[in-house]
Amino acid sequence: MPDSIFTKIIRGDIPCHKVYEDAMVFAFLDVSPLSPGHTLVVPKEEKATLAELSDESAGAIGRVLPRICRAVMSATGCDAYNILQNNGSEAHQAVMHVHFHIIPKPSAGAGLGISWPATKLDHAHGAALAASIAKVMNTPD
Cα(111)–Cα(105) distance, rounded to whole angstroms? Predict the structure, then answer.
């Protein structure tokens, strides 16, 4: 599999506006922002989806994501923001390297716009699905 554009950015082959870097995480401004301050937070481990990411890389992102959010909000003066993370092309993932978008919401019309086609959870189906997920979670890898 060829290196993703994010791996090339992390390596320095492609320039970026870096906002954060440590041994496991790299963050930089999106070149096609939805609003000023739109930042991408990327693990240095190149995996396509969050489910494939190691616990170590996931933990590293989890530790710094709130700090990066606070920095972006402080720098942009925004109080509201979205965190977006897509997995797979059917879920609108364009770059097959795990990444989180921090998208400031400076006004009602700016930033990320989403549709939320909610449905109603059937009680019996929900109980069966929750039990199935819990069983998988309690099964050793």
Answer: 5
Return the closest-CA partner of residue 30 out of 86, 100, 110.
Answer: 100
Helix (H) or strand (E) holding 118: none
In the beta sheet, which residues pair with residue 101? 40, 84
- Model confidence pLDDT, tens digit, residues 16-53: 999 999 999 999 999 999 999 999 999 999 999 999 99
Please identify which of the residues 38, 97, 99, 101 carries the catalytic annotation: 99
CATH of 5-114, one of 3.40.50.10140, 1.10.3210.10, 3.30.428.10, 3.90.25.10: 3.30.428.10
Compute φ and ψ for 103, nearest 5 degrees: -120, 100
Residue 92 among the catalytic residues: no
DSSP state string for 60-80: HHHHHHHHHHHHHHHHHT-S-
pLDDT digits 0-9 by tens, 49-67: 999 999 999 999 999 999 9
